[in-house]
Amino acid sequence: MSETDLQMSASAAKMTGNETAANSFPLNPSLLSLFPQKADPNDYSRGITQSSTLWQASQEVSVFTMGEDGTSQVTNQVVKTLPQGKKFRICALVAAPFNDPQSSKIYGQMADGSGLALLYDHFAATPQMADFKEDSAWPMKTMIRLKPGTVLYEDQTGITPLQSNSSQILIHLATAKDGTIWGHTQQGWFQWIDENGPRFYSAPEGVVVGPLIGSDSLEEVYRQILVGKTFENAKGSLNWGYALADLNQNQIPELLIASGGKNQDQVISVYGLTSNVIDRKEDASFSAANTLLYTTSNASSGANELLVFQTLEDGYKISRIDSADGNIQMTELSADENKELKAETLQEIQFVSINDLTHLDPLQPILLSELYPDYRSSGFSSESAAITQAPSALTWKLNYDMTVRKNPERTSAQSHVLPKDSLINIIQESKNGVETWGKLEIGGWVCLQDAEYVYASPEIGNVEKNSSINWYEIYGQILRNEMNNSPYGI
Question: How far apart are CA 293 and CA 320, in angstroms?
Fold first, then answer.
């Protein structure tokens, strides 16, 4: 997949030195226009180009390394300096210090994964380090918070103010007639910076996902995978797009995720061929450098096929992707198959922004229990015979600060700590000697009691869960507890 949308024609093939290969390729010459244009391996990929904004350094721009938690911190280590006049691409914007309404700096995550470029420093002699040149074709959909006093307007003229929330989703950037930069959110427009500095700030983001259950749909699973990939982007993983394609001919589409910042390192990861999807793990991956994907109907069987059109150093190749027992196989088409291939039967797979989950909406509501009838949402496979199972109360209240562990035993790895008075949902209990452990609905285990202490007390039992209790208050308290539990507060 090249940086531009231009596709190679027969004449273009001659210009790139592939004249011999083009003339000897055993297919209808009209199919040559369906191959991607050979791109510079070090150029940005098409997906990165469409999902990033373009900037130009107005002075030297320093690029800093990110902390281990991605954009949750910026180190003082400079990895490189962009010279004045250099154009570069940015995948996401963050204001620092993080979670601070007085933030004074704006960084951009480099589209090559190298780090965070300092775009604006309110206290520098010349605050604006780079000029905004071009918006992203795909929506950013980045979570931001407006600073107190920031006004959201109906448009970039700044005339008609709107009622707005502090939390906003930044979708696009634009330059007004007076040259100022404006941010477009789901509710309106705001001026990016003013005489007081940035008008937004960034809060640490996190995602909490629990164990999947049989009543979860495939759409929900795919959404969780994509959300996880967006958080990986904060660490420089550069997952930029996704598409749906039926690889095993069962009318249930698999999830294809495209990653890689440059043409040379593009990879397509496949999810949903097997029950690995329950653990949010990929089934396979394949290189997508200088590649376009098409679906077509097999003339003999009538089944849909996924074809890979590759532009190589010395010519072209068309391969078929098959799935056998969950394993990806790529088989080059024979000369006869190439000759029979018709351009009108091919439909290019279009990747869309990984931040835009609306393309999953039409996915048919297939439940995990229908896909994998033997799949159970609970259970602890590595438990010993000494540990017995018992039904649990629904909601418990912690009497102490409690450590969440991976398994129901004190030597198990720690996950995080829940504060005293937290309300937790327990879906299963396990007895381990004198200890009783509870499995959290969101994943992990806490000790409920031992021979000396009662660490948690049941608030609502299973017999009560269908009664007229105030669920708003119960869930509200859980959310209030989580708001105080960094980094999941958002």
Answer: 10
User: What is the distance between the alpha carbons of residues 133 and 105, in angstroms, rounded to a whole number?
Assistant: 19
Cβ atoms 67, 94 nearer than 8 A? no
CA atoms of 236 and 213, how far apart (whole Å): 31
For residue 171, the tally of other CB atoms under 10 A from its CB is: 18
pLDDT: which is higher, 15 or 321 = 321
- Cα–Cα distance between 145 and 147 in angstroms, integer? 6
Eight-class DSSP state of 101: T
User: Which of 18-27, 200-209, 399-408 is predicted most confidently?
Assistant: 399-408
Tell me which residue has tokens 């007085």: 102
Place of tokens 């003999």: 300
Q: Which residues contact 298 (CB under 8 A, 6 or more apart)?
A: 304, 305
Helix (H/G/I), strand (E/B), else coil: 305: strand
The backbone torsions φ and ψ at residue 212, rounded to the nearest 5 degrees and listed phi first, read -75, 150
Q: How far apart are CA 394 and CA 379, in angstroms?
A: 17
Backbone angles phi, psi at 475, to 5 degrees: -65, -35
Alpha helix (H) residue ranges in 201-294: 218-233
Using CA atoms, how far apart are residues 229 and 221, in angstroms rounded to an integer?
13
370 contacts: CB under 8 Å, gap ≥ 6: none
> Tokens standing for 318?
């068309």
Which stretches of 136-249 are DSSP H helices? 218-233
Identify whether the C-beta of residue 52 lies closer than 8 Å to the C-beta of residue 136: yes
DSSP 3-state assignment of 434? Answer: coil
The predicted model scores a pTM of: 0.71
Which residues does 271 contact at the CB level (< 8 Å), separation at least 6? 222, 225, 254, 255, 256, 257, 277, 280, 281, 282, 283
Cα Rg of the chain, angstroms: 26
H or E element in which residue 370 lies: helix 368-371
Indicate the SS3 state at residue 265: helix
pLDDT for 4: 33
- 92-109 pLDDT, tens digit per residue, is 898 988 888 899 999 999
The CA distance from 448 to 458, in Å, is 9
3-state secondary structure of 481: helix
Q: What's the CA gap between 75 and 227, in Å, rounded?
A: 25
Q: Residue 197 pairs with which residues in a beta bridge?
A: 194
- Nearest residue to 257 via CA among 349, 383, 171, 173: 349
Q: What average pLDDT score do residues 275-295 get?
A: 90
Site of tokens 């996902």: 209
pLDDT value for 5: 34
Structure-token pair, residue 233:
């982007």
| Nearest CA among 437, 455, 454 for reference residue 446 | 437
Express as a percent the part of the chain with pLDDT over 70: 81
The answer to whether 128 and 180 have CB atoms below 8 angstroms apart is no
Print burial letters for 262-274: b (CB count within 10 Å at least 16), e (below 16). bbebbebbbbbbb
- The token duo for 6 is 């231009």
d(CA 280, CA 443): 14
